[in-house]
Every structure is written in structure tokens, then in C-alpha cells.
Amino acid sequence: MLPALTQFEATARERLEPAVWEYYRSGGGQELTVGEAEAAWCRYRLRPRVLRDVSEVDLRTTLLGVTVDSPFVVAPMAFHALAHPDGECATMTGTGRAGALGVVSTRASRTLEDVGVSATGPWWFQAYLMRDRGLTEALVQRAAVAGARAIVLTVDTPYVGRKSRVDGVRISVPDDLFLVNLAQHLVPGSIGREAAEQDPSMTSEVISRLAEVCGLPVVVKGVLRGDEAAKCVDAGAAAVIVSNHGGRQLDRAVPTALALPEVVDAVAGRVPVLVDGGIRSGLDALVALALGASAVLIGRPVLWALGAGGADAVEDALRTLTADLAHVLALSGAPRLGDLDRSMVTAWRE
């Protein structure tokens, strides 16, 4: 991990409540998957090109019609207000100022409207299909009005995974945070937290349904198999995200660094493929982009930065990652993201 990100992590650990720190960093089961994420990217080695003009490096990329200065995307994560009083508002402020795109979680701790006003760049909204499907549909419609440019449907969470560092699946969160975006849509007499839990009966038909409801492209997040990715695209997905939920769901799930090539091959260029999980440097991102990813998502390091210094630190963390990627792209002989391809990486076996 880059030294700046390590420092943000150390500062956040000092400042956050111990229970919050453990919740953010926790993984599912025995935490094998969360522990393998970073090392998996290091299993690849680079095959750089030479004698290329790398006097200027351009990291701009276009995702579903939106052009951004950086291929780093802030992953959806719950309850940012546990890390900083301004919560997701601060995160999206810093993200946009860094020229990046951010994804706001259904479990956000600030209203979608406040986040939309605070955002200084483009953002997407992450959705769970909840037991009360009307809640999901109301949220994606509000997100569209608030300025979201796409919906990210998480599909690897029919039930929330048990976490070894937490008594159950999450720490205790007060209703004013948990239901901040949901309370106004609850049916009278319903129990909010039960209605808001994920619907385990979800099937692929929900992809087209959400697109119809909100008029936005739907990105499917949580895919680790090529055949499943192809089915999502066939069902209307505008993009897919290779993700194991930061190791917080099914333990022993394959690292995303190893799953990515299969998914890219199966999608075969029909839609963009993004990836998250253990990306902590420009080198990690370079490998992912060379393997076929259109962009990479960053999770926990953004929360550490938020906890360490709010919007300014989030901006700094993302700019640090972007600068590191620009540096290693130049060293690899690839001045533009479009110059990367799979010939530039090779699997390494000791």
C-alpha cells in the first residue's frame, strides 16, 4: 500500500471508535478472502514497452457516457458518518475534486439530496433489492432526481454475511443513520429494518425493472464468474463489477484479481467491466486495467482518509493513487489507458 494511504489508515485507527474501526475492516467468516485480496494483484508481473513517448500521460476515461480524469472510482460503503460528521457529503466532495467518480451506498448516512448537492463530480447510486421492493424503487428514483448517473445493483448479498469482528453482521447503528433515506418511504406499521433487509428471492429480471423505473443504466456489482457476467449482460446490465464485496460476504470466494480475466473474456467487450478488491496502488490498478478493466474501485482506503481528514484527505488519497498510476504507466510505456492490454501482464508462479 502507498505510504500516504498507510498514514491515513494509522490516523483513522487513532480517531475512530474501536467498534467502528473493526466494523470497517472486518471480513466474512475466517477472513481468508479479505486477507488474500491485496496479495492476489502481486501474482502478476509486468512486461513494459520501451521507446514510447511518455512525456505526457493521460488518465481520462469515459464510463457510461461520463468522462472523468481518473479511472479510480470510490466504491459504495455504508455509514460514512461513523467516520466523519459530514459522512457521504464529505466523501463525494473530495471525490469530485480529485476528478474521480463515486458510488453512494443504499446504507448512506446522509440523504441522497444532501449528497447530490455536495457532490463536486459525477456519482452513481448503489442499490440493494430490499424485501419491500417499493423501497428500492423509491430510492433509485430519488437518486436519479438528485443527480446520480447510474444505478449499481449489488447482487452478492442475498443475506448480509456474518463477520468475525462483529457480533452478527454489523455494529449497532441508530435508526437516524440506518433509515435516513428510507423512513419516508416505509409503509405505515412496517418495521423499517426488516423491510430494508435484502430480498433473497432476487433474480435477473430486476435489472431491467430498475432501469425502467429510474431511466438510468444499471451496473451489476458482485460478479466473480464469466458465465454469470454474461447472463447479467443478457438481462440488460450496462456494466458489471467484479467484486467479492471486499471479502465481507462469502469467505473463500476467489480474489477479484484472479476472477477478472474470465469475466472480461465472457463479456467480450459488450459492456465495461470494473473491478474492486485490494487495489492499493497505481501498480495494482495498472494490472487490473491491463487485464481488461475499464476502471477500478477503491473502498477501505477512502474510509481511512475520510476518518483521518474529511473531504480534503479523500481528495488527497485519490490524487495520490492517480499520480502513482500515471507514474507507473509512463514506466510501462503506456501514456494512455487505451495503450494497455493483456500482453503487458503475465501471471507469476514462484
Structure notes:
The structure is a single chain. The chain is an alpha/beta fold and 350 residues long. The chain has one domain: Alpha-Beta Barrel (TIM Barrel), CATH 3.20.20. β9, α11 and β10 form a beta-alpha-beta unit. The protein starts with a helix and ends with a strand.
What characteristics describe this protein?
two-stranded antiparallel ribbon, TIM Barrel, 350 residues, 13 helices, single chain
Any chance you could write out the topology, listing elements then pairs?
Layout: H1 3-15, H2 18-25, H3 32-41, E1 44-46, E2 61-63, E3 66-68, E4 72-74, H4 87-97, E5 101-104, H5 112-118, E6 123-127, H6 133-146, E7 151-154, H7 175-178, H8 192-195, H9 205-214, E8 218-223, H10 226-234, E9 239-242, H11 256-267, E10 273-275, H12 282-290, E11 295-298, H13 300-332, E12 345-347
Helix pairs in contact: 1-13, 4-5, 4-13, 5-6, 10-11, 12-13
CATH architecture: Alpha-Beta Barrel
- The structural class is alpha/beta
Strand content range:
5-15%
The global form is globular
What value does the Rg take, in angstroms?
A: 19 Å
Q: Which percent range fits the helix content?
A: 40-55%
Low-confidence stretches: none
| Succession of helices and strands | HHHEEEEHEHEHEHHHEHEHEHEHE
Within CATH, the superfamily carries the name Aldolase class I
Number of structural domains: 1
Largest sheet: 8 strands, parallel, barrel
Helix count equals 13
Average pLDDT: 94
* Beta strands, count: 12
What is the first-to-last residue Cα distance?
Answer: 22 Å
